[in-house]
Write a structure and sequence with these properties.
Largest sheet: 6 strands, mixed
Radius of gyration: 21 Å
CATH architecture of one domain: 3-Layer(aba) Sandwich
CATH class of one domain: Alpha Beta
CATH topology of one domain: Rossmann fold
Strand order of the largest sheet: 4-5-15-10-11-14
Helix content: 40-55%
Length: 497
């Protein structure tokens, strides 16, 4: 049976998986969600014997029902190949009383590779299935990692162009260098004078601009998104939680059916939402532990039921979580509202007009599987130093937030259930923050001297993603005001009027 996707803001809109992937965002501004969350068909006992690719197929076939087996397997095998530096794709490392799911072994050394390696293949397959003749323009806002992973995924893919907006002062030096040195005749990178929320809001406005859409159509283009608002980005993320459970079984850490906890450092709520979907598919997950940095809008939401972005935006050493408008939370709101599109639309309208909304008591009761807490900048740095000192394992800043929050959770609840922590980026992506935390004596080193020192300390090889940008020339130097984002898009696509 075909699984259809509906807008979180209009229940009448129903499209196939391939149409939802192509469109990215519903025309009413809502996000596409599946009519129902399918149950895992594979028995838990089978998971330990499955490769990452086989696990991904078992998940994706349930959500992307208008793709054939041949199409899905082609997309999966094209994505999870030698671009990853380990055949495991997402290894599970035991350290400090938890299991770190290393999601950073792809081409750009961040968890975004896990989904953005497959999205271009899903999208080009979807375009063929739907007889799309237009070129697809990927329009994306990034808080640091999505941008590079999407650029790497879509570079020189026929029939596509990709435009990435990032906050000029809101990403790490390595993240910025990775983006501005990106090759590809179809890649465009623009720094904006604002923060990530400004970039994300600007992209959403461009998506919603009907006049621009008509001009694009006339010029032979149509927009789609590589952000986690695209269901084609979200569904592949479910697979690595299923894979992690299989690894825990294979290692003898869990018995089939025994529950585990999952800790996810999150800003835009996509990665933890994927874990929530996995839980709803029947994967034995108990608590979903949401870890935030000083921008703790999600933590406050879980504690109070009120989502309020009217607060100071704080730049931190974990920039991918420096977000006050968590787009993917809308998908969770829709679900806990009983799939009520009108209720969801009203709440999202309140967020736009007033900067806040509050859910009902009945909806709050459906959040009891979540736990939220945060780590301050000092706590994050101290956690990197402690884990390195005690175990020799080096965490990046985002994973350190998750590690600290997990320790707070354990102290607060006494829960000793086996726990998987989503390790979302390589420490090499945030070398200065990581090395400063380990020892301030490294402060005078250059970024690439720090890279080499980190390699010595951690006993790991410098990733190819870092080596290739040491001497790479800057190819993108455009800077724009937030108000000029639409004009930049039109200029790139040569549709100025």
């Amino acid at each position: 049976m075909e699984l259809l996707y509906r807008s979180t803001r209009n229940h009448e809109v129903a499209v196939s998986a391939s149409r939802a992937i192509l469109q990215g965002l519903a025309e009413d501004g809502g996000l596409f969600v599946p009519d129902s969350i399918p149950k895992l068909e594979t028995g838990l006992e089978a998971l330990p014997g499955m490769t990452y690719q086989e696990t991904a197929y078992e998940v994706l076939k349930l959500f992307l029902t208008d793709f054939t087996e041949e199409e899905l397997k082609h997309c999966i095998n094209s994505a999870y190949d030698k671009k990853f530096d380990t055949p495991e794709i997402a290894p599970l490392k035991a350290a400090d009383g938890a299991w770190y799911l290393e999601l950073f072994h792809g081409a750009t050394i961040a968890f975004k590779d896990m989904a953005l390696s497959i999205l271009p293949h899903l999208m080009t397959t979807a375009a063929k299935k739907n007889q799309v003749k237009n070129d697809i323009v990927i329009l994306t806002a990034t808080s640091g990692d999505t941008g590079k992973a999407a650029l790497a995924g879509f570079a020189d893919v026929p029939g596509t162009k990709i435009i990435v907006f990032y906050p000029r002062d809101g990403v790490s030096p390595i993240q910025e260098k990775q983006m501005v040195t990106q090759k590809g005749n179809n890649t465009y990178v623009v720094a904006i004078k604002g923060n990530f929320d400004d970039a994300q809001t600007g992209v959403k406005h461009i998506f919603g601009d009907q006049a621009l859409k008509e001009e694009m159509e006339e010029a032979g283009y149509q927009f789609s998104s590589a952000n986690s608002i695209n269901i084609g980005r979200l569904v592949p993320q479910i697979a690595y939680y299923v894979y992690a459970y299989g690894r825990m079984l294979a290692n003898g850490e869990l018995k089939a059916g025994e529950k585990m906890n999952v800790v996810v450092p999150t800003g835009n709520f996509g990665n933890i939402l994927a874990a929530y979907y996995a839980k709803n598919m029947g994967l034995p997950i108990d608590r979903l532990i949401c870890a935030s940095n000083d921008n703790k809008v999600l933590v406050d939401f879980f504690h109070t039921g009120a989502y309020d972005r009217n607060r100071e935006f704080i730049l931190t050493t974990s920039p991918s979580m420096d977000i006050l408008i968590s787009s993917n939370l809308e998908r969770l709101i829709y679900r806990i509202a009983g799939n009520d599109a009108e209720k969801t639309r009203q709440l999202m309208q309140a967020l736009t007009s007033d900067g806040r909304y509050e859910i009902t008591e009945e909806m709050k009761e459906k959040l009891d599987g979540f736990y939220g807490s945060y780590a301050t900048e000092k706590e994050t740095a101290d956690e990197i130093a402690r884990v390195y000192r005690e175990t020799g394992y080096v965490l990046d800043t985002h994973t350190a937030v998750a590690s600290k929050v997990y320790r707070k959770y354990r102290e607060e609840t006494g829960d000793t259930r086996k726990t998987v922590i989503a390790s979302t980026a390589s420490p090499y992506k945030f070398t200065r923050s990581v090395m400063d935390a380990i020892d301030p004596k490294y402060a005078s080193m250059t970024d690439f001297e720090l890279v080499d020192q980190l390699s010595v300390l951690s006993g790991t090889r410098v990733p190819a993603a870092i080596e290739e940008i040491r001497t790479a020339p800057v190819l993108h130097d455009t800077v724009a005001e937030v108000s000029g984002m639409k004009a930049i898009v039109k200029k790139i696509l040569k549709i100025e009027k």
